[in-house]
Amino acid sequence: MSPTNPNREGQSCTGNIFTFSGISERSPLPNITLPSILQNIPTHYLHIRHMSIATRAMESNLRAAIAKRLQELSIGFYKKNNTGTLQSKILRDVEAIQLLTQQLFQFLPSTLLTIGVAVAVTAVRVPWFLLFFVATVPIAVILIRILRQPLRGLGFAEARSDRNNVLRRQMEGMSAHLIEMIKLIPITRAHGVETTEIAKIERKLVDVQQAAIRLDSIDAITNASSWVALRLFSCICLVVSASLAFTGRLGVTVGDVVLLTGYFDSLTSSVVQILAVLPQISKGFEAIGSVGEILECPDLEQDRGKKAVESVKGEFIFDSVSFAYPHTQQWAIKDFSLHVEPGETIAIVGRSGAGKSTLLNLIIGFLRPNKGRILLDGQDLNTLDLRTYRRFLSVVSQETILFEGTVRENILYGTEGISQEQLWQAVEDANAREFIDELPQGIDTFIGENGAKLSGGQRQRLAIARALIRNPRVLILDEATASLDTASEVSIQEALERLMANRTSFVVAHRLSTIRKANRIVVLDKGHIVEIGDRAQLLVNQGLFAQLHALQT
Ligand SMILES: Nc1ncnc2c1ncn2[C@@H]1O[C@H](COP(=O)(O)OP(=O)(O)OP(=O)(O)O)[C@@H](O)[C@H]1O
Ligand SMILES: [Mg+2]
Fold first, then answer.
1. What's the pTM value of the predicted model, to 2 decimals?
2. Does residue 438 form part of some domain?
3. N or C: which end of the chain has fewer CB within 10 A?
């Protein structure tokens, strides 16, 4: 048995009986004892090593499964679950599950063996005494409940699992809050509200602390009362068996008294130990539930078994498409119908909140219409494997998302077999050559987390280069040129116009000058199409577009 095994009492008990029988036969005891002690080194090593291989493999497989699942969940899932919560599940909960398996493999088998041996030997020697063993457990449970009564008065009435759940949610909340706090540090400092932020995080910490104290208190009382209950029964066991031996009834001998009290002791110790590790075990089960919230989440982007997209011409038909965000009363897009020919450039214009980004997300397939259909080359997007469709798509979104890596890695993200010429062509077309050449290590300069070392306009130009290099059939631009100076905007505009040629493009731009060359302009208001046509027509119409145009010029 392992030296780290918590089951020490049980061990000594079986050890006693072994030694007792050994002495009586005057056998060469040291010859057995020494090897049996020394074998602990190799067997314990092998036991722990193999268990570690198994549980650590489980730990990393579980994290890999979560990571895979995170890639399959819909974008909507990420609007509901923040980074901190997910991080806490991947790190903290998986660790709790790993500890649980370790407990189950390392500790439970030896404890159960001890109980099994105690019961078996008693059944052979003094069968009717088993009734006493069996009756002990339910009575002990009742006794423990009675002993826990005072807890209710102190407001600790909930079950342990509820408390575990509360603590886990508090931890997730705190983790989410910490990440948010770190992200907000520049804004917090700029506004001089450090103390408010510190106070907020301290409140969260106090919540976690109190939930943990309540949990520990429940554990303390439960453990102590079970210990007391079982020890009381040990005494009763001794008194009953001794008085039976003393009066000579039921054939109980003095030897039986020693045996019965010895085994009853190891039995109760095992039960007490199981109760002692119960908190960790129930924490492990709570963690399984928590991880299950990701692994069993039905909010998947359903792609499996759907038709793969082999090529894209770029024809889109919007057939009375309506969409409302969950838990909102209003349609973000309402009855949107439009036929887009392959290669057409559609500009989407409207006030802030009109539904422009929502429409783009419907085209990407991040959102699915609640009513109506979107047909790509005559096929409903709902019936297609969106992962294959998106290989033909490039997106430059309102927020440029870059990762910690070099300029080159950021531009080449998700592509393979791109030549140096193609790379530099994209850089040129995105008007990014000049600033990239000025960076300390040129295109191999590290740009920091989310391009922290670049300006807003530089970040956007990288995102445009990234879109260009994929040579897409469908192009989606959401305010792509918003943070460019006028000179860059003009040259980017030329590049984008070259890029948009022969590709279906959906362009959202607040600056109306940037969508001059669009084939058609769709004017949205509260999710409806209010106007549609080319620039000249819309200006003549004197509608919303003309109003927006007048405001800008
Ligand atoms: N995740 C969301 N949950 C609920 N409502 C949302 C969500 N995202 C957007 N909305 C709402 O849907 C409507 C359309 O939003 P959308 O982002 O499409 O506007 P937009 O036209 O892109 O605006 P902007 O020009 O400011 O980017 C808005 O009223 C907005 O409040
Ligand atoms: Mg938007």
1. 0.71
2. yes
3. C
